[in-house]
Amino acid sequence: MLPTARTLPIPARSVGFAAAVSAAAMALGVLVVTALWRRRATRASRAIWAKKLALAGVPPYVHALAWTSTMTAVSALGVTGAGRRIPFTGLPAAGWVSTLALLPLATALALVALEHVPRTLREAGQLERPDGAVLRRIVLPLAAPTLLMGAALLFLLTILDYSVTSLYQVTLYALEIFVAFSEKNEAAAAALSAVPLMVVCALVVALMARSLPRAMRRRLSAAG
Amino acid sequence: MSRGWRPRWPIGLRRTQRLALAVLAAAVVVPFVSLTRLAAVSPAALETLAKTTDEAIYCWRWR
Fold first, then answer.
1. Above 0.85 for ipTM, yes or no?
2. Which residues of A touch B5 (CB under 8 A)?
3. Is the overall model pTM greater than 0.90, yes or no?
4. Alpha carbon of B34: minimum distance to chain A alpha carbons (Å)
5. Residue of B nearest to A26 (CA)
6. Tens of pLDDT along A47-90?
7. Taking the alpha carbons of A85, A89, A95, A99 in that order, is the dihedral positive or negative?
8. What pLDDT, in 10s, does the model give residues A150-168?
9. CB neighbour list of residue A73: distance below 8 Å, 6 or more residues apart
10. Which residue of A has its CA nearest to B25?
11. How far is CA A206 from CA A19, A117, A127, A164, A212, in A?
12. What is the distance in angstroms between the Cα of B47 and the nearest Cα belonging to chain A?
């Protein structure tokens, strides 16, 4: 069960990949929500948004299938030159698909975080500062603990998913558990190899548990 | 919080927001179109996708 030269960098790579994907998805979610504040909500736009958020339930491997098919179709059009395929594989492809698969959920989490900032504080800031500064100095700091919790949830979903990374031939830790089981056909070996991943996930859950009371306190003190 | 607020963002932020909206649109349109085409070509293929992750990946890789 000791790490070898092959398996040693995999946990760090897995954590790095999940952190990058969750940060990118949450940043895009925040940008989308702040962009929507400029638009008036109509019944049609609410229906479109409900459909977009419903895609959060589509498994990531379906996104991978869709993106690979799309890239194959685009390659067939000859955009990249005759007979040349778009190299849609490896870490960039896995990162792109994982981020986009999480984006509807990330948008919903960002919406919850940003909408919970008390209106009175934002309006008080607007008297003195432009909207960009109000967002940077008031809205984002107050929403930060909730955004952090959302990002932690996205991190957990990414680090535990092996489907997208295995489809794009990227070896991450979640796949190593399957490898450990396949080697000896022993459930105990797979359970043992899952321990480091469980420790990382437990640390992230502990961070979420610490962040929740902080978010509640900020909300209550800001409202009071 | 946002009720009645139509903020005027700096131009740089507006451009980045447009890019983020385009990425979200792609994240929604690409799987939706792909699944619709798949359903039109072969409804049985959708059934494959609804199976467990292992089976679906196996079927997709070796189809």
1. no
2. 37, 122
3. no
4. 5
5. B20
6. 667 766 767 677 888 888 888 888 888 877 766 666 677 778 88
7. positive
8. 999 999 999 988 888 888 8
9. none
10. A52
11. 16, 24, 39, 26, 10
12. 12
